[in-house]
User: Fold these one by one.
Assistant:
Number 1:
Amino acid sequence: MGNNLEKNQNIKSSRGNWTGHLGFILAAAGSAIGLGNIWKFPYITGDYGGGAFVLVYLICVVIVGLPLMIAELMIGRHSQKNPVGAFRKLHYQKTPWQITGWLGIASGFLILSFYSVVAGWALAYIFKSLVGFSGTSQHIQGEFIALVTHPSASIWWHTVFMALTIAIVIGGVQKGIERWSKILMPALFLILLGLMLYGLFFTHGGIQALTFLFKPDFHKLSAEGMLSALGHAFFTLSLGMGAMLTYGSYMRKNESIVRDAITVSILDTVIALMAGVAIFSLVFHYGMKPGQSVGLIFKTLPVLFAQTGPLISVPFFILLTFAALTSAISLLEVVVSYFIDEKNWSRVKATLILGGAIYLTGILSAVSMWTISFRGKQQGFLDIFDFITTNYMLPIGGLLTCLFTAWVMKEANKIEELGSKGFLYKGLIFFLRYITPIAVLLVILNGLKLLPFVDYK
Ligand code: TRP
């Protein structure tokens, strides 16, 4: 056993691997838990009406998210490669399945470009809340509008955030990603716990927040709401673009993929729900409306923070920035790992060049005045990139990954990764063959309003 472990380490050491079990869990949870949980989940839940949306999202996590996370980890650990190299290695050099990897790298590139802009706002708001929010609610909300409409301000914070991300990824798997996740993730959990308890016990909005989140009202659920619930399950679990695949490739053979995938999915879901409770307690306490879109965190909450003071707001934005940072590094790592593995670039070179290119692309999203017509509306690049990647690129990438694992990957390889060919194996393969892909396909078609048996009006 000891000998085996050593051998294992020797083989992997040139690409890097996690120092141990906790390192993997925290890094993977760090990737999953991000702006998706704390910024996006609450605001889309507010927009799509609460409980029913939450329920569909939870169902998507179980029947789509969990099987897919297991599939990505299996492909990653078995191939010990980046998303493109993995399909080549497990199939053959010119396999068409490598398109899945390309799509993933493109998704990672695009997602990080706008993700960093939003993370930059979070960073800016740490400083704003140190000074404190005051004045009329219009004035406070106006500050957010000023931030996003002043290109120099949002580009500056985007620059700072990308620089941090690049610095950590240059540090590599153990000294960068793992070490920082081990510090940031526990801090994040404690801060969020404090904020949730505050919302539940020190405001009058706690009960209403729980009702809003957990009592489904299906009249409020639209086809677009369902597509968004699925898209969000992908986004929040970091699935569909090879991020978990890449993190799985640094995993050791003696760990249980199924157990780890369950742990990460539960952590991610719990954090999102905790953030929902914390935020909606405040929203209801002050009699605000839940559907505030993108501005929920940056426009509505600061108005409430003016009442609560910096003791609540400073930790909140620090939390948001930490969460974003451990996710951003996973997005960059996917892109970088391809150039390290397949092009033999050094880590420093790959990180600087690709990080730089993503940074430049992000400027499109940072300048909110640049809009183009998209789906019948004038929209900024941030919303457009978010919409396309979350609702289409990730689900399609996930669909392909799922089909590959279920139908193409060799049975012996799958058994090796899962440990045995028992009940668990059969159940998982059944899901990956029939349930998960059909669910994904239905929701994509539904989002495109293409299902013949649904009345879209
Ligand atoms: N899951 C992260 C969040 O919820 C974002 C993220 C990180 C991501 N890596 C990803 C999303 C890979 C999709 C794919 O904020």
Number 2:
Amino acid sequence: MSEKLKIAIQKSGRLHENSLRLLKECGISFDNGNDHLKIQANNFPLEILFLRNSDIPQYVEDGVADIAIIGQNLIIEKDKKIEEIIKLGFSKCRLSLAVPKNVEYPGLTWFNGRKIATSYPNTLKKFLDKNNIRVEIHEISGSVEIAPNIGLADGICDLVSSGSTLFKNGLKEVEIILESEACLAAKTDVDAKKKILLDKLIFRMKAVLTSRNNKYVLLNAPDKKLDTIKRIIPGIKSPTIMPLAEKGWSSVHSVINENDFWEIIDQLKENGAQGILIIPIEKMIV
Ligand code: AMP
């Protein structure tokens, strides 16, 4: 049997849907069998293993899987022989310390001699040691945010994205320990044959991720403004410019970054652009 790359993804939870979506957008087709522990892709030498999130780093270190989609926070917490390959842009969050909202928080020293509940004891301990703070760490596996209310701890260390869970539980975020997002991670010593497959997959993922951040733009511009418009939307190499049937006007095609979108549109309008069309890009290879 020819060599297959084995990827571990979360069996259930926040990363599950986005991980499957990314693989599909990379052109990898598979049947989502319910309750399967592993499935084979139909058109790429890939086996997909569905595992419990917190077990994934160990499975990758042991070679049960070669690569995985997990949060950067988990790589740091578990400290196994695995490394981040590319960031995937979803499940953005931060690992933070939070305290009851009525606490007048003077700084990290507030935690000295107190109890902190967390599911991330290693990352927390490293952070506190570095800052010379001595605390009692209570490791719990879920619903960390209720710990102060039930008298289990004085504060918590947990993942936060919008902050609404903290708010609902009468807590406030006081320190950020690290920022995290989902990433593709791999065993530090992937063997050579699998590395070829991994490089193919990385190439596809980068094409999908780049296209998500960019839009194709088409517009009509007065010829006398073309030099300025070329500077506003330089595109990948340079914009395409074609004369319109109407004299003195051209059609300009280019690519713009999602983050600068509205600012660029304003500048284009100020320079006489008309009939601006914005089109999503499916894949982008630069
Ligand atoms: P879970 O689905 O809760 O097991 O979380 C799995 C992973 O999702 C974590 O290891 C984080 O990388 C990420 N994550 C957890 N909590 C959040 C959150 N509040 N916002 C965004 N991502 C999160």
Number 3:
Amino acid sequence: MNVSLNPQSLAWGRTENNIRALAGYAAARKAEIGRENVFDFSIGNPCVPPPACVDEAFRSVLAETNGVELHAYTPALGLPSLRKAIARQLCERSAAPFDWRQVYVTMGASAGLAAFCRAVLLPGEKAVSFAPYFMEYRVFAEAAGGSLLTVPPLRDMQPDFDALEALLDESVRLVIINSPNNPSGVALTERSLQMLSALLAKAEQAYGRPIWLLSDEPYRELLFDGRTPLCAADYYDDTVICYSYSKSLSLPGERIGYLAVSGRTQDPAAVFDAIAGGARACGFINAPSLVQRVVERCIDQTAELDVYARNRDLLYGGLRALGYDCVYPDGAFYLFVKCPEADAVAFSERAKRHELILVPSDDFGVAGYVRIAYCVPTDMIERSMSAFAALAEEYGLK
Ligand code: PLP
């Protein structure tokens, strides 16, 4: 029988993202030869536990909240007390105002990104992002009826604003930024945010329609070398923040985050209504009740994030010493390494022979690199160095 299915959805389902496929391969390999013998750098699952306050909050919420109330639907938009706490925190870090009534609690950043694409894109309209980019942006933009255009990076993986300017036209509704970046680890500089803001404001003027800036910030707190996170809303008025507690609180499996509309946008209440409608159309109402309450109690906390900077130093220093060409990561927990051959998939396959699981960069919109997720125990990085050395030798590096 001809099962008529949506071919687009079928294709998305079948081209399961390479990261998950590699993580599956790594899991099978660990079962075969032992966990300690596989250097699994595939997936961005934090290796540090959530802070103690998370465990305490789970316990206290369970003990203190009536079960019927705890497990009931929350308001579709999220608990008002959590939305107020999020708005308060954003106001403390940004000069732009954030009203709690324009904060939508989501199931992680993924749900926020998908809902926002649905909120603003009309069929045929475009979102733009800077390569290398989180691969799901394309799926979310296309699922909303739009498409994703990408701007190739400069050599240091900073955005190429001339290329952006050439792309901007009246069909571009949305620009998505992600700093610090998955997969490069590079953070946008203040100068970059100023240049981006100037370009977008100019295009808004020229086309007489807003261009929304969606700042995807799951790694906001994971910045090294004493850098403090910049808030995109301080630089550009039509900004919406997309956040996730997956990395900062080490809670990726609990699915919690938010969208927050800057009070400086044109008609923030209407933007918020469109977000609520976009989320509704995706079926994303009512993020999990228990974890909403937990996050509210831990709102100003993070997991012990210092390990990521130590891992960065160890890996970046170690690989450079072996002759690998690496992009210097300002934050997040990813290292982007130039492959010593043109084909990143071939290099990743060759690395597998040394039990190194590295993600080829093609799905991130850039050819010829691999991503190393170093959110792993430090001793694994230390133990992996001999494998990286053997691989370097095969390619005659150094
Ligand atoms: N955006 C970026 C840049 C990411 O790296 C990720 C996850 O790794 C997400 C969004 C999705 O995060 P979440 O787990 O909150 O859905």
Number 4:
Amino acid sequence: MNHANLKKRTIMRHPGLAAILVAVALAANARPPTTSSDIDRIVHSMSLDEKVGQMTQLDISMLLVPGANTIAFDTNRMREAIVEYGIGSIFNPGLGHPMPLKEWHYLIRTVQGMATTETPHKIPILYGIDSIHGASFMEGGTLYPQGMALAATCDPPLVQACAHVSAMETRAAGVRWTFAPVLGVARQPLWPRFPETLGEDPYLASVLGAAEVRGFQGRNLAAPTAVAACMKHYMGYSFPFNGHDRTLALIPDYYLREYFLPPFAAAVRAGVATVMINSGEVNGVPVHASHYLLTDVLRHELGFRGVAVSDWHDVIRLHTWHHVAATPEDAVGMAVKAGLDMSMVPDDYSFPTLLKKAVEDGKIPESRIDESVRRILTLKMELGLFKDPYPEAAAVKNFARPEYRKVALRAAEEAMTLLKNEGNFLPLKKDDKVLVAGPTANTLFSLNGCWSYTWQGTNAEWYPPGEPTVVQAIRKEIGATNVVYDEGVDFEGMDISTANAVADAKNADVVVLCLGENSYAETPGDINDLDLPAGQQALAMDLYATGKPVVLVLLEGRGRIIRKIVPDARAILMGYWPGSQGAQAIAHVLFGDFDPSGKLPFTYNRYQNNFLTYDRDYTDGRPEAPDDTPQFEFGTGLSYTTFAYSNLKLTSPVLKGTGKLQVSVDVSNTGKREGMETVELFTHEFYASIAPPLKRLRAFKKIDLQPGQTRTVHFTLTARDLAFVNAQSQLATETGDFEVEIGNLEQTFRYEE
Ligand code: BGC
């Protein structure tokens, strides 16, 4: 350890000095900006160096003693970043893993102390973090389900509540910006970030994405319960042609606007403060270089007024990866001209240096730089950073409250999606003898997934003690004596002890077989084969051969192909990556304490080479192609009770122009227990100028019904709900015959312009 640095660190940690720094800083900002003209005045008085600095975002490691295993600031490196380069933003946990709040506060106080005392305009730092499914880099933070699981809940207020918990815990650490929500729609099943999304449907993702934005930001970014949200990754990232992370997407303009734009548009309408740009290419153009997407569409069409930040290294990659910029300087110029405000550089000073040169060489007008700086400073003002950039006492008390775990548990429970339940095999009896087997049965990785305490989520050291795995939760649920556990095979399906599992199955009443994926994030999660590894399937086959009933529990980020092991499973429960409370949720559902109500938010494919989505068109569903059906349709989700739909009514057979069509349907609980049902309204146009999809989700409502209870659910349809993007890239509703479909009921009507 470097003792010189240790000494510096000890001085910096001295509480008295910290208090003085705070006082000096607050005095320096005695009159913090409160209006846009105040921001304009600051921007006009800033030097070019200061301005390009504000547009720069660095990883915190750039300020720390290299290699130290605690937060140890190197004052020279820190001064270089904050004072010499005047950088505007820092991100990441210092050590790559969660830190206690105390450590976060020390970190935030230190950087803000220097920024607000030693820089010419005393501008505070905007600190960002990946609180993707909870404040995973804050020790003790609450991890709720990943996006795909949240989408299965079809419960906007619950999704909003999860994001709000995340906001409160993130802000409690002194951090006021999260790089979430993930708004790419999941239409490429191989893609390793599939589980971070809110499903394949643009409407569902729009409603839930907007709920997340509201949950993060609240009504007022300055409130100690709010953080700025960052919709990402704009746009087309989720549809790589070959399924690999950060590769080429080929998306015609109409398709881009029909399927990928709506969640971003909805987030803009919800007031999202920032956007992160897609690292990949759309139609050969890296999005970081696309003036069309970053300015014409995002700013001019959607009216986004916030800050556009690059993703990791992506500006320089216009030169080094994408080869669209011949030099690093061209890369910087290209991105800024396209519409970038801030570069997540994040580990050198190339960006501010080259940007300054580009302005001095007359390649970029300084007025363009001013625009970005204005946006960045406005966000800092809105977040209350000029008034008080330090961790706030009012925020700290909102950390790790017991009720947050209840929110995470509820979300995990509502996410649970029952895909198959032959002969009502589930729920299991609590006195059953159970063999719990499979590679996802006794690990926290497959419950939490990526961005869980570490980037990849696969470092056991950082998981909090006491969080149960599935087998532990089942033991808690029914008592340890009736539960035997055998891993059987590992994630890759390598044979460890199938024979033991088979032998143990013989003494069990039922086998709960937990299959699926380990945790992964981004490129390390790339796969070339969507099949569930053969060894995992073989374990299922061997267990089926014992004749004992087998329940499959799938813990996986993607829908790995399981065609061969579906028929003999008595029941299949999709658990996704359900977060810290996921194992309990699984136990509650398996043993009947919670009635499953999740709806599959993506189309679970049956074949490797036939990727379908629910909104496929007629060419995909032709009768002469009998196998052309997915394994499980979008929206699949059984309950322990039964629901019946009746009386689908439309107020008129014709919807005209700007009029409204009221739709109602009766939903009854015809079973024996209380249950929740998501009532989904789909529409379908019989003929249109672009081959119409077989159905599109246009509205949904989640209701709770007692046994025997019937409720009438109402929807209102307007022309906007029937619209699609036509060949001219315009949103249009064409005159024609439509069908509305709810449950197993259908009604036709006509729309006339
Ligand atoms: C990811 C982003 C993330 C960023 C900062 C990138 O590698 O693509 O989603 O926000 O890192 O950690």
